[in-house]
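Reading is simple: the token line describes the chain's fold. The lines below illustrate.

. . .
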Amino acid sequence: MPINYREATLDDLPTLLALEQCVVEAERPFNSAIKHGKPLYYDIEDLISSSNAYLVVAEHDGEIIATGYAQIRQSKQSLEHKFHSYLGFMYVVERWRGQGINQRVLGLLKTWSQKQGAKHLYLDVYVKNAAAIKAYEKAGFDPLMVEMTLRT
């Protein structure tokens, strides 16, 4: 069961758009404010074609089974580092979970980020998504801040 990890191409766009909706559906239970229908989270075409982003896919027998991207972003003025790498679109098709695929994707994104000179990596995860938090902690991430919200 060989898994191939590679940079995404524009030919992957239809599949990536479908997987983006899988991410949306997976996150709906954690955020009731997500729009109905098929909201877009990412500018996938830009992530593929931008020189400051690296979108990785894992595929098996030609089927994309996992995704993730790293994007170089400017950091807040208050921080010591001027830029960082932001990770997103972290998704593994359900039947492929638990096989270390996400860890491999994270490793590729970390390596790319380091080659860009980024020494800090950030990502967002819903506080109630215990499985994702556990996976990111296993990869060396530490919780840093909790975003609070109030619906009025």
About this structure: Strands lie at 4-7, 53-60, 63-74, 83-92, 121-123.
